[in-house]
Amino acid sequence: MARGNGRMTIFLDDLDFRTFTQLFRETVEDFKIKCWNYCAMPNHYHATLRPTMPNISTAIQYLNSNYARWWNHRHGKVGHVFQGRFTAQIVQQDGYALTLSRYVALNPVRAGLVTRPEDWRWSSYASLIGLRPIPSFLDVDATLTLFGDGETASRRQRFADFVLASCEDETDDDRIRSSTKILGDTAFKASINGEPSQPASRDS
Asked: What is the pLDDT of residues 117-167, one digit of tens each?
């Protein structure tokens, strides 16, 4: 996630959104990154990315700096467009990636911009559930695989049902909004931090 400097609006109109999406596509393809989903909001953007090489920082720096230069030139501004370095979380695929996929899709709904997530043009959600053409850089199967086997149509429906279902417990959503660097269970966090796995306890 990257936010506008001082939470300022960084996408003022359709041209801003389209230009950013084009730069995002170029970045994902040129740096060989798998994009599971994305959502550009008026003052920030979210994306679930899986790099195939250790280049995610370079890639996002390339994206943000190129958009910032273009945006400043177009709008006659100077200075920082984005608020410092991008925010990143390492997310466990099993279980936690489901919550993240819902969180990204519902961003424009929570912000009061639309009533249904598929109505927001600058998000991958409508493409993931089959209502819009699939951008060349979007790895649809990566997200739909989280919803089991079966025909694409049924997996899309399960995804849509999951996103639209009411969520009584938003604990995991709160973690995504927090400064937590690793989102996953204890074993996953230990593996990322290079800690030895703990042996299973046995009854004495």
From this structure: 999 999 999 999 999 999 999 999 999 999 988 899 999 999 999 999 855
In what helix (H) or strand (E) does residue 63 lie, and over which residues does it extend? helix 56-75
For the entire predicted model, the pTM comes to 0.85
176, 180, 186, 187 alpha-carbon torsion, rounded to 10°: 90
Radius of gyration (C-alpha) of the chain in whole angstroms: 18
Distance CA 166, CA 28 (A): 32
Point out which residues pair with 2 in neighbouring strands. Answer: 45
Give the number of other Cβ atoms within 10 Å of residue 31's Cβ.
18
Task: Using DSSP, state whether 119 is helix, strand or coil.
Answer: helix
**Nearest CA to 154 among 142, 144, 163?**
144
Distance CA 11, CA 4 (A): 9
